[in-house]
Design brief:
Rossmann fold, Nucleoside Triphosphate Pyrophosphohydrolase, Phosphorylase Kinase, domain 1, 4 domains, 14-stranded mixed β-sheet, 17 helices, 23 strands, globular
C-alpha cells in the first residue's frame, strides 16, 4: 500500500498577488505545528511539494524535524487563474466547477489542472511504491485530484474546505489505483464518519479496478447467512480489508472462511461499490456465495452465524448493508436462472422500477409495487398483443412474488423527435394500431372501468394547491364535461419517447405496459404531446418543430383510426389535465421541484392554446 498525505498549505497572505512568491501569514506560520503533530507518527519516507512558497513553507518545519529533503515538482503547482488579479473569485470558481473546460484567457481550466497533477502523481506513485509520502499542495489542485478518484466530490466539497488552512487529504493506493480517501480538518478532527450523510454508490463489476474492502453475501439452505462478532449484538456480512499481496478473490475467500467457517461453496464477484461520507471515501467489491457445507467458526472475530429471509433487523452498517443487499439480490436471481456469468449493468431506475441489461439477449426488471397477479396480467397482455402483430416484450422467467421478471430484448433505438419530426407519422400509425389491438383483446383481459371524472373530483382537484381557478374551471368545462363523449378503450397510459423503439423507420417495440388501463384513448395522444413539451417552453424554435411533430402524429394516426371531433376539441385541455395530475402527484410525495415544473407547463399550455397548431388557430 502506498499512502500519500496531501497537505493543503496554511493561511496565505492574500495581500501578495504573485502566486509563486505569496508567503504565509503569521497565523499560517504558527499553524504549521498542526501539520507537524499530525505527521509525527505517520512514518513518512518522502517529502514533495509544489514549488509555490506557501505550499513549500507549510511542510518545511516538518521536513527539517525528520531530516528529510523537500523535492519540488512543478506540476503540483496551483491552478493559474489569469495574468491579472480577479475580484469575483467566487463566481469564477463556480463557473469552473460547473464546466471543467472553462478558463480565463491566460488561465487554466480545471481539466488541465487535473491532468497535470494526476500525471505528476502517477509518476510519484511509480517511483515511491509502498512508501508514505507527503506532498505540499493547494486547494484547487488537490480538489481536482480528489475529484479524479471520486467524481462525487465537486464544488460543494471544494467550498467546504476552501477557507481551511492547512487541510489534509490522505489517499491510499494499491497497484491498481486509489482505494480510499480520508479528508482531515486539522482544527476539528473527526474520529468517525457521519453516517447520516453516507452515500453508497453501486457500479458495474470491475469498473473501480482498485479495492480496499471485500464484502461477501451468502446463501445457505435458501436463506441469507450473516455473522455476529463477539463484542457486538448486530449482524453483518462476512468481509474485510484486502491484505498485502492478496487478490480480491483471495481476500474474499479468506474472510469468508474466517468469519463463517464455510468449507464447501461456490463464489462469484457481483458488483463494485463505493461509500462516500463528507470526510471519507472507500471502495470495494461485493461477492455472492452459495454455501454447500459449513464447518466450525474459526476462533477469530466472529462467534455466531444465523440465517435470515432478508437483511437482519439489527445490523451493523445499516446505512450501507440495505443498499448492497438490494443489488446482490439481482445477482442471486440471475445465478439461479443460469445467467450469473452474463455482463450486467443498470439501464435506468425510477420510483417504480429498476431495469438491468443482462448479456446481449435479456432485460431484467424489478417492479417495486408489482405482485404475481399483476405480472400474470402483463404476461397475458404481451402474448395477446404479439398475436395481434404488435411488437411487445417476450417474458422468459419471473420470481414467484412477481417482483422480478426477465424478458428478451427488443432491438431498436429511441428517436429524438425534434431531430427527426417526420418519424412522428410512423408513431401516429403505430399508436393507432396499438389502440385497435388493445380494443380487440379487451374481452380477454380484466380491465377496471376507469373514470377520469371521479379521479378529477376525488384526487386531482383536491391536490391542486396554488393552481389558478380559471385553469381548473377550464378543465371542468371541457375535459370533465366532454368526457362521456370521448371514445374509450384500453390504452397504454405511459406513451413517451423512451417507451417505443424504432428500427429502419418502423416501430420495433412497445415497452412498459404497467399502467395499461381502459380510458379515453385521447389520453395517450395528449400524454405523448405534453411530454414532448417538457423543457421546451419559451424555446419557440423548438416549439415550431413541436407543431410539426403534432401535425405528423395526427396525420399518421388518422391514416389508421380517425380521431373524433370531440377528441380534437378536448386535446389541449387534456394535456393540461395530465400536467395537473402530475402537480397533485408530486405534491403528494413532497417533490416541490417537479410539482412546479408540471404547474409551469400546465400554465404554458393554457396560455398558448392558440399557438398549438401550425397555422395558429385553436385546436
Amino acid at each position: 500500500m502506498t499512502t500519500v498525505y496531501f497537505i493543503r498549505h496554511a493561511e496565505p497572505d492574500f495581500n501578495v498577488h504573485d502566486d509563486f512568491s505569496r508567503p504565509l501569514t503569521p497565523k499560517g506560520e504558527s499553524d504549521r505545528i498542526l501539520v507537524e503533530e499530525f505527521l509525527s507518527d505517520k512514518n513518512i519516507d518522502v517529502v514533495l511539494s509544489s514549488p509555490f512558497k506557501r505550499a513549500f513553507d507549510t511542510i518545511a518545519t516538518f521536513a527539517r524535524k525528520v531530516n528529510l529533503p523537500i523535492h519540488t515538482i512543478d506540476d503540483f503547482r496551483e491552478r493559474k487563474v489569469d495574468d491579472a488579479w480577479i475580484l469575483s473569485f467566487e463566481e469564477f470558481t463556480g463557473k469552473q466547477w460547473a464546466d471543467f473546460s472553462y478558463k480565463l484567457p491566460a488561465g487554466e481550466s480545471l481539466s488541465e489542472v487535473q491532468m497535470r497533477n494526476i500525471a505528476a502523481l502517477e509518476k510519484v506513485l511509480e517511483e515511491h511504491c509502498g512508501k508514505n509520502i507527503v506532498i505540499g499542495t493547494h486547494g484547487t489542485a488537490l480538489s481536482t485530484i480528489i475529484h479524479y478518484y471520486d467524481n462525487t466530490y465537486g464544488y460543494e466539497g471544494f467550498s467546504s474546505m476552501k477557507r481551511i488552512f492547512p487541510w489534509v487529504a490522505r489517499l491510499d493506493f494499491n497497484e491498481n489505483g486509489c482505494v480510499g480517501i480520508e479528508k482531515i480538518d486539522l482544527f476539528n478532527p473527526v474520529s468517525k464518519p457521519d453516517v447520516e450523510k453516507c452515500k453508497v454508490r453501486i457500479v458495474d463489476l470491475g469498473e473501480l479496478k482498485a479495492y480496499k474492502y471485500t464484502v461477501i453475501f451468502a446463501r445457505y439452505k435458501d436463506k441469507w447467512l450473516y455473522c455476529r462478532a463477539k463484542e457486538r449484538d448486530t449482524y453483518e456480512t462476512a468481509g474485510g480489508r484486502i491484505e498485502k499481496d492478496e487478490t480480491i478473490l483471495e481476500a474474499a475467500k479468506r474472510e469468508f472462511y474466517e468469519e463463517t467457517g464455510a468449507i464447501k461453496y461456490d463464489i462469484i464477484p457481483a458488483f463494485d461499490y463505493s461509500v462516500h461520507y463528507p470526510n471519507v471515501y472507500a471502495n470495494g467489491q461485493v461477492f455472492l456465495a452459495h454455501v454447500h457445507e459449513l464447518g466450525d467458526i474459526p476462533d477469530y472475530e466472529m462467534t455466531e452465524i444465523k440465517l435470515f429471509d432478508t437483511i437482519p433487523d439489527k445490523m451493523r452498517f445499516p446505512h450501507i448493508l440495505p443498499v448492497l443487499f438490494e443489488r446482490v439480490r439481482v445477482t442471486d436471481i440471475l445465478w439461479k436462472w443460469g445467467l450469473a456469468n452474463e455482463t450486467i449493468y443498470q439501464i435506468c431506475k425510477s420510483t417504480h422500477s429498476t431495469t438491468w441489461s443482462v448479456g446481449s439477449e435479456f432485460i431484467l426488471q424489478q417492479r417495486f409495487n408489482q405482485d404475481s397477479d399483476k405480472l400474470a396480467q402483463n404476461i397475458r397482455l404481451a402474448n395477446l398483443l404479439q398475436k395481434e402483430g404488435i411488437p411487445a416484450i417476450e417474458y422468459i422467467k419471473s420470481t414467484d412474488d412477481g417482483v422480478f421478471s426477465l424478458t428478451r430484448k427488443l432491438y431498436g433505438e429511441h428517436i429524438d423527435f425534434y431531430a427527426f419530426p417526420e418519424m412522428m407519422v410512423e408513431l401516429g400509425r403505430g399508436l393507432a394500431r396499438l389502440h385497435i389491438a388493445l380494443a380487440n383483446i379487451e374481452e380477454s383481459l380484466s380491465y377496471k372501468d376507469y373514470d377520469f371524472v371521479s379521479e378529477w373530483n376525488n384526487y386531482i382537484k383536491p391536490g391542486l394547491v396554488g393552481v389558478a381557478a380559471e385553469i381548473i374551471e377550464r378543465i371542468e368545462d371541457t375535459v370533465v364535461a366532454e368526457y362521456l363523449h370521448l371514445p374509450r378503450s384500453p390504452i397504454h397510459r405511459d406513451v413517451h419517447s423512451k417507451n417505443v423503439l424504432f428500427h429502419e423507420g418502423k416501430i420495433s417495440g412497445w415497452l412498459d405496459f404497467e399502467l395499461n388501463r381502459k380510458d379515453a384513448r385521447i389520453f395517450d395522444f395528449a400524454y405523448l404531446l405534453a411530454g414532448l413539451l417538457v423543457g421546451r417552453m419559451g424555446d419557440f424554435g423548438k416549439f415550431s418543430i413541436w407543431k410539426t411533430i403534432f401535425r405528423n402524429l395526427l396525420t399518421g394516426y388518422n391514416e389508421i383510426a380517425k380521431l373524433t371531433v370531440y377528441e380534437i376539441r378536448v386535446l389541449p385541455d387534456m394535456m393540461i389535465a395530465i400536467e395537473l395530475l402530475f402537480v397533485t402527484y408530486w405534491n403528494s410525495v413532497g417533490n416541490d421541484v417537479e410539482r412546479e415544473k408540471a404547474h409551469e407547463l400546465a400554465i404554458w399550455i393554457y396560455e398558448n392554446n392558440e399557438h398549438l397548431t401550425e397555422k395558429g388557430e385553436s385546436l
